[in-house]
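> example.struct
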């Protein structure tokens, strides 16, 4: 178990050491004199219990630049550039090809395996000097007062009490903090499960990411090596259960049939993991002495590859607002500024992913309407620009 903080009032306690919580902790560690404690309920990962999954994240250019700034280094083989994005629809002719070079960029962003990203964040956390960490430690209860929050933690068999000026909920989709505060949620169950894995294809991916829409759910390929790609295939939950139980050969045949022949035959598939898909959008991201960030604030459909990119922007904005309010950390004015800074980006990004997911995954008759949407994107510079900006994480 890692070390505990002393009993006096802390400035910030970050609950949740997922990708977003760690990013915030790193950003706060850059502020000398700020007393920060980062809590995580799970034990430190080990080779026997690696904790991280099979996903591959598409990180926008803005996110990779920000992570560089935070001292997060993925190491050799940790990043794979996305130089092109190809969007198409099964059974329709329309398609959109976005070229990074046409926008004067070497790449729209990078694909980073979840393990590599989490490992790089963990390494950066291990190099921090001012930050206190407690892990495994679970927030059990809290009560906000006028000038601080009282916290009760479960640390092994012990109960520990602390006080902080600001409590940050980075505790994920089922956030205990957000739930305890009864912050209203806008929710939607997409009735789909994403199957996540890695595959090998016959033809060179050449840095191209593919997003293909089918009547029964989207399928995305994220370029890793020349012939290896991360796969995210969304299916109705009962179909996903069948697909997860299939032999590798049958699964490859199914995925290839949904994707089409553009990349030749599909050869090998890695471990498959299911992710049920839902939207959860918190109507408020602040409460007395509390700020909510990352998936605790909004869990969105992965179709636009925006969840972590958006959560990272929450974390960076919160760190900046804290820096601007060093004498009033957790104050009403500080929290109002954080909420206002995040309002438009959160709403637009969640709406964008939700609209894309519902429009493209529905079983409504397709044909000309959706082909037209893609063809319009090809021909309307403004829409293309919006797609490019969202792909880069600049929103
Ligand atoms: C299939 C799929 C593909 C995706 N692809 C992309 C992509 O390409 N690009 C992208 O930007 N995003 C993507 N995302 C979204 C991204 O995974 C999430 O937005 C991001 O991981 C959220 O991180 P988080 O730290 O907010 O939450 P979490 O990762 O859920 O972390 C929350 C942490 O809080 C801890 N915790 C919970 N309760 C307590 C407690 N009481 N006390 C202490 N600790 C607690 C948990 O143990 C956990 O570690 C994808 C998501 C899915 C499902």
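> example.seq
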């Amino acid at each position: 178990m890692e070390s505990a903080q002393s009993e006096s009032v802390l400035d910030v306690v970050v609950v949740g050491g997922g990708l977003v919580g760690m990013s915030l902790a790193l950003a706060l560690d850059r502020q000398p004199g700020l007393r920060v404690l980062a809590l995580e309920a799970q034990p430190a990962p080990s080779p026997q219990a690696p904790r991280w999954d099979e996903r591959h994240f598409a990180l926008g250019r803005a996110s990779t630049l920000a992570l560089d700034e935070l001292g997060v280094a993925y190491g050799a083989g940790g990043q794979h550039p996305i130089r092109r994005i190809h969007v198409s629809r099964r059974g329709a002719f329309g398609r959109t090809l976005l070229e990074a070079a046409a926008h004067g960029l070497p790449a729209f962003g990078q694909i980073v395996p979840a393990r590599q990203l989490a490992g790089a964040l963990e390494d950066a956390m291990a190099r921090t000097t001012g930050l206190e960490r407690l892990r495994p430690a679970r927030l059990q209860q809290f009560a906000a007062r006028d000038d601080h929050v009282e916290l009760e933690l479960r640390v092994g068999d012990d109960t520990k009490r602390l006080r902080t000026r600001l409590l940050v909920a980075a505790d994920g989709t089922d956030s205990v903090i957000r739930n305890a505060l009864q912050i209203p949620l806008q929710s939607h169950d997409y009735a789909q499960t994403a199957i996540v894995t890695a595959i090998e294809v016959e033809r060179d991916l050449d840095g191209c990411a593919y997003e293909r829409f089918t009547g029964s759910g989207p399928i995305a390929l994220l370029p890793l090596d020349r012939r290896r790609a991360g796969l995210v295939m969304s299916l109705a939950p009962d179909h996903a259960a069948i697909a997860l139980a299939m032999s590798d050969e049958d699964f490859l045949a199914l995925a290839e049939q949904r994707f089409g022949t553009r990349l030749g035959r599909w050869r090998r598939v890695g471990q498959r993991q299911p992710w049920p898909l839902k939207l959860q959008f918190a109507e408020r991201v602040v409460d007395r002495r509390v700020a909510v960030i990352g998936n605790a604030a909004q869990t969105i459909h992965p179709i636009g590859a925006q969840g972590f990119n958006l959560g990272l922007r929450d974390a960076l904005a919160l760190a900046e607002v804290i820096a601007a309010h060093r004498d009033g950390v957790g104050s009403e004015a500080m929290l109002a500024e954080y909420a206002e800074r995040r309002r438009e980006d959160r709403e637009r990004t969640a709406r964008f992913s939700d609209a894309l997911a519902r429009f493209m995954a529905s079983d409504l008759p397709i044909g000309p309407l959706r082909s037209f949407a893609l063809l319009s994107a090809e021909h309307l510079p403004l829409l293309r620009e919006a797609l490019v900006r969202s792909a880069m994480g600049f929103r």
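> remarks
The mean pLDDT is 87.
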